[in-house]
Amino acid sequence: MNLPSSTLLAQSILAGVFTGALYGLLGLGLSLSWGLLRQINLAHFALAFLGAYLTYQLSSYGGIDPMLTLVMIVPLFFVLGVAVHWVLARFKVTPFNSLLITFGLTIIVEAMLQWIWTADYRRLDSHYAEQRFRIGELFLPLPEIITLALSVGCALIVWLVLKRTDLGKALRAASEDAPIAAAFGINQRGLALVLSGFNASLAGVAGVCIALSYTLAPSQIYVWIGVVFAAVMLGGLGRPFGPLIAGCIIGVSEAVTMAVASPSLAPLVSFSLLILVLLVRPGRA
Amino acid sequence: MTLDRRAFLAALSAMGAGAFAPAAFAQSGAKPSGDPIRIGGTLAMTGPLAATGLVHKLTGEIYVDNLNSRGGLLGRPVEWVLKDDQSKPDMARTLYEQLITSDKVDLLIGPYATGNILSAMGVAQRYKKMLVHHTFGIPKLAKYEWQFPAWSLGPDPDITTPELVLDMMAKSQHPPKRIAIVTSKFPSVHFVSQGARKVVKQKGLEEVLFLEWDFGNRDYSPIAGRIKEVDPDFLWVGGLGLEGNQLLDALKKIDYKPRNHFHLYPAPGPMVKAPEADGALAITIFESHAPFTDNPIAAEFVKQFGERAKAANLPETSVETQAAASFSAWQIIEKAVVENKTLDDEKLATWLQANQVDTIQGRLRFNEKGNFGDNLGRVKQVQNGHWLTVYPKDWAAPGATLKTS
Known about the structure:
Chain A is mostly helical. Chain A has a single domain, classed as ABC transporter involved in vitamin B12 uptake, BtuC. Chain A is 72% helix and 3% strand. Chain A has helices spanning 6-36, 43-60, 70-90, 95-117, 142-164, 166-176, 178-183, 188-213, 225-235, 242-260, 266-280; strands at residues 132-135, 138-141. In chain A, a hairpin with a 2-residue loop joins strand 1 (132-135) and strand 2 (138-141). Chain A is globular and about 60 Å long. In chain A, 52% of the residues are buried. Chain B is of the alpha/beta class. Chain B folds into 2 domains: 5-152 and 290-374, Rossmann fold, CATH 3.40.50.2300; 157-284 and 379-395, Response regulator (Rossmann fold), CATH 3.40.50.2300. Chain B is built from 13 helices and 14 strands. A 7-stranded mixed beta sheet of chain B has the order 7-6-8-9-10-13-14, sandwiched between helices. In chain B, strands 2-1-3-4-5 form a 5-stranded parallel beta sheet, with helices on both faces. The longest helix of chain B has 20 residues, at 50-69. The two termini of chain B are 29 Å apart. The model of chain B is unreliable at 10-24 (pLDDT under 50). The A-B interface holds A 4-5, 7-8, 11-12, 15-16, 18-19, 111, 114, 118-123, 132, 134, 139, 141, 144, 215, 217-219, 223-224, 227, 251, 254-256, 258-259, 262-264, 266-267 and B 46-48, 50-51, 53-54, 87, 185, 211-214, 216-219, 221-223, 225-226, 229, 241-242, 245-246, 253-255, 267, 269-270, 273-274, 312-316.
């Protein structure tokens, strides 16, 4: 093991924070769905990639600035999320079955992405990729800063809504005890539809961030599932800042491992961390 | 032993290459008749390998269409029975069993990617079928006598590939002394990178960094940081697919451009399009420019592939290693059947072991370890948004020379 220079270590920590921010953004919708709706929505990752491909298409062929695609993607995905939840609620799908059904949806979306865009790699060329800031010896690429800002922003919005608004109180009440909440006049079904729509919008936002920083291929959907699930479980279900903080912890631990030891040990470190936390605090998730 | 260009073109002429002139490649011959000769195989038409699977599919379709327009094989039409192995070796195994026992195909052609080829090889061996395949990356695992690779890596690519590249660099204007080797742990690249370490040591060069990462790694920033810290003269990237692009992207973000960098098996389309990849080196057996396209068959294939790839909405429409190896596989099958006038696997395999086949990548022989023959690898470089062969010099693209710094 070689000790890295302070610059390398600092840059790696920064890289870990940026990667963790994307884990957090991807995990936020999943965490809210799992924690508040009791649905494990694997299709969240497929929706994120659908958002990424739409961003690619609108920017590369429509000439629209990637950030402006959010104006279209957020409401569109809200509607998609509502539709998916409506189907799941209509058939009274249990949490375990939601895992299976949304996995099936993931396969369908992957096939659709491949049908439309082929299995070949697609890369969004945008002016954002060329821009980076410098603080001393450290580099801060603009796409990653945008991802961090959106991740923190979305987590803050969710926190504010859950803590400071009647809607948030109603959501928390419905999640704790749906029948009693209904007795108090809370429209649990309506709330669930709104929340599902919001979660799908979060997936769309994550998709824009993925398109800005990564090359796209339909099969890449599955690359994110393991680590984002780890972030969600470490961060605690339904906690607005949980996935972000846990994602950053995982991202930084992976990056530092790669900086000081063999990069192939990085997944070992992050998942060992997950196991350790779950053993020490099994009620975490 | 490598094949030089003059010998290749002379051999082509001696074989009556005039009979395979561009007009003849697509010319209508006598209409084939009778029961079709069924050649069965699988490809990754879905899943993570589908991008390259599609290249093989287009190539196969072009070859079979042209073969049938030239009169088919043994006067009979050829039918390609193609199934989707979904990029999974276990699925490939099952489907090859099905092709042999249920579909009862006459001949087999291999799938794409080393893992799937290995699965198919086991099935072919069980049923004593010949298997011609395209790009099998680990020759030492090819133990079945009746399998024939169309990828002219040579039997020891872990030594010959690094030797080719480092010998080229030694003769360049900037011979490197300090080498960094970073590699994916994907099997068919990892062992070549390990070989590169041995070759670096044998040549008395200094290995300043060696790093490995798991295939599927998402974050290349720390790896990039470590490369920048050692600042090597030459960077060997044992990368597959997009890994090289991801690493170059991470290097760009920390404002570092490697002086000289080689990528083992990059996704050629994304690599050539990335501005930060200018100067990147890679190994090749074929490129869509002269002198490769001096071969009229190759020229016509390049033209047809370009048309079909464009129609299929592929972002990359030029022929390179994968398409060329795929085309060569079909050429091997056709040659063996035509010379022996039979579909008997044993006779075809025995003939191939004792003979050579002229293909668009060069003359292939199958009489060394793993039925591999000569290493026909060349080195190409990204220059101004194009892949151009630069070494050996007699295979360089017109006007192209190796650029180093």
